[in-house]
Design brief:
This protein has 122 residues and is mainly beta. Helix content is 5%, strand content 52%.
């Protein structure tokens, strides 16, 4: 079984969430959007420091649209879990680190948040 070579996604967790970027992969353009879904109880009662995601009532969501001449075509919208490979049409995505400091919700700053993911053609 061959292993895939993943290109690291240009996610900068210090820029906060939500965040979006455009990326060309294998000659096609894609729009990536990441947002955090965190319950109010978690925001009010969270301990200091980053949360390992997914957690109870807290997770990251990724949506991917492929740019087409007629407009964007949605190919993925998923709650993210570390170590899972997600198929998105011709792409495969995976995330090895999903750590979010709540101060990065709608705000930039270096608080220890880290989101590391990759994309490959599958």
């Amino acid at each position: 079984m061959a292993t895939r070579s993943f290109l690291r996604l240009p996610i900068d967790a210090d820029e906060g969430f939500p965040q979006a970027f455009r990326l060309a992969v294998a000659g096609r353009n894609y729009q990536f959007r990441l947002y955090a879904n965190v319950a109010e109880d978690v925001v009010r009662g969270a301990p200091a420091g980053p949360l390992q995601l997914p957690a109870a009532q807290a997770f990251l969501v990724l949506s991917v649209d492929r740019e087409e001449p007629g407009g964007p075509v949605s190919i993925l919208r998923r709650k993210l879990v570390s170590g899972v490979e997600y198929r998105a049409a011709e792409l495969v995505l995976t995330f090895r680190t999903l750590r979010l400091d709540l101060r990065n919700l709608n705000s930039a700053g270096s608080f220890g948040s880290e989101v590391v993911g990759g994309v490959a053609v599958g």
